[in-house]
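User: Predict the full complex structure for these chains.
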Amino acid sequence: MDVPLAKFLVWPPFYTLQPNLDTQNQQLSLWSQVILDYAKNNKIYVATIESFDRVTRNSELNRFLSEEFKDMLFKHMKKQKFIIAEGLSMLIFWQKPETWAEMIYRWASNSGRIGTVETVEGLVSGDETTSEEFYGMPVNYAIEVLKTLQKSKKAEMFAVGDSYAVKFF
Amino acid sequence: MEVKLTESSRPVLIPNEVIIKEQSKVEVLFEYFLCSDSKQGEYYCYLTSHRLVCVSKKNFAIPLAYIEGQKAAGGFLRTHRIEFNVRIKALPQYLHEYMPQALMPSMISMKFTVGGRDEFLTQIDTACRAESWNKPIIVEQKQIKVEGYGIGGIKQALKEDTHDRNQTLSAGFKDLKSLSDKSRELKNLASKLKQMDESKDPELQEIKATMASMGFTSGVTKETAGKNYIPQLARELCDFIKEPLQNNGGLLPLLDAYCIYNRARGGSVISPSDMAQACELFESLSLPIKIRVLAGGTKALSLGGQAVENLTRSLIEKIREVGHLSSKEAAEIFKISTTIALECLLLGENQGQLCRDQGLQGLHFYYNLFLRN
Amino acid sequence: MKALMEQKRMKELYKKKGSEMEGEFKKNLKSQLQQFHQSLESFITNNRAEINKNPNLRQEFYDLCREIGLDPLISSKGACSDARESDENTQYYNDIAVQATTVCLGLKNRTGGLLSIEDCWKWVNKLRGQRHSVPLSDLYRAIDNLKVLGNGMTIIEGESKMILSVPMELNLDQRGIIEAAKGTGFVSYDMFHQWNKTRFDKAVESLISEGMVWVDALPNGKIQYWFPAQSLMSS
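Assistant: Here is the predicted structure of the three-chain assembly.
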């Protein structure tokens, strides 16, 4: 039993950073969900704060998130590991890196790729994976994902000239 | 045959077992075959779907499957009795762990010294006919796999399923018994829905209500317990609410407990006043749950007598560690209700150990550095 | 190589068709379940007394309700007048009491513990389903019955009746602000020119501190104060 997220988005005070700390925490969690949903629906892997202006501004309501608010929000999302900063942009994990990793590993296992080496680029943009959910993932994003596989000893990455390759175990 | 009892002296139930009737002050006489010995004593009797359980200083239980030839006896000027024979029969495999073999009497006579014989006998008849102990506990679930097993396979699986479904739904519900059978099939249907990928489908989530399913309790009612309703309700409540209390730091607001308990009962919810009356009996029945009225006016159930003080102490320690806490933060850390958190923080404040800072940022409690010994 | 490609194409086709058919199945199953829902609802209302008498049946029955998402607490009011405390009537008010408690407790973290009785009513009726909605007066009475369990749910009288489910007292100024928010769901200082600013700020801030009010800073510099209990909650 709860109020749907969509209702919050047409509720004016949702766009003002709340002074009550408990309320603010709630608000930041809700907004994190809004950002992640938006990223998921539009397959946004890499973004800047401005990429989300569409959701953080509501012209009908005439409300928008202040710079301070946006700052706090993305700090919060970094802390929760929904975002990994990379230079001036950020990687958005609307699905946890571990979940992506499982998906990739399952594909590797189903297609008999255990023990072979793949280029990371081939993994996300090659012919063999066009029907996979992770198809189209940017390489730097995929690398973060594969790092978790590396951690669980299910794969190992290494550099090949300018690019990266991965071996599955 | 030994029988396991809860802390409140109610029988621990076998899976799928429900209590149908209870009766106090029954004098039970046991006669043993090939033995002139007979035993007698006054018992509180529970008739369940699976057994007759008699509780007193010593307890025993007879599987209903063993009961034969039950009849009314006694009459004018003689106390109403029920008499029946006990004949050992084969029991389903799964029951063996719950019913260790013991010396069975060959005949039992139950004297109903404060009445209730007729209703009890009717229920024995019904329960023996129903043979609930023969119903399988685990219902087989058919699974539908829709992952690349060939179009043919998919079509076939869907066809079979539709066939089952149509059969089930076309039958009317006029008959309670047929409903009882049908409901099992329909549970299958519901489970199938459950097995589908919920996380990706908000509609599926909508279909399932968010109701607390903490496991069904027999649900003491006026029908099953008669004059003993409130005391037995107190006992059942105590047995049930122990686990939720443990999961909530040992304290629950009375209102929350009312809600949780009633949701577990399913349909026959108890009234607020019944609940209040039952709770008042905890003390006199020497049950381990206490009812407390807290500083802010909240009535709460407490596991043991020290839960409030212990929790308050833990909160104060935590505040010394992290600096300050709001009731919401405290509730999250200690997994307790926010009302209870607030009450304990208020208690700490009253004791002079905590002080408050209330403003736009909310209500936070700090350790009182001006504490004077 | 060609065989491999062909195999891959077939696999994709199966997958696509599979999820289509699963979709069909889901839709079908949903509508079947909805139909069953309704039949079950009628059955409950007509046979409530019977079911309650038979604990065996009761268990299976309500397990099923829970599984398919049907709230079993939908008995209807007895035909007799209010004065007589019939068993049916008691069941009816008890059901509502449990549902009202569920709603207030469930929404507490969004509302700060303050909920308009009308919104509580709407949510309770949502739980019960269209065919079993109850009048506001019956909700009142059910909540009134809960008094015996302590001050967990208190009704604040006034023009906009509210339910308070946190252990606190609302003072007159706070109540005044709550009243003023009726209809729109928010207040601002220019609705209170008869008060001096300090008085207004003090009352509003105390409500913010309780989590019952959210601040809304408009682009033009004005500030409005919103009650989730009187705006966000309304369905």
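The domain at 222-303 of chain B is CATH 1.10.10.10 (Arc Repressor Mutant, subunit A).
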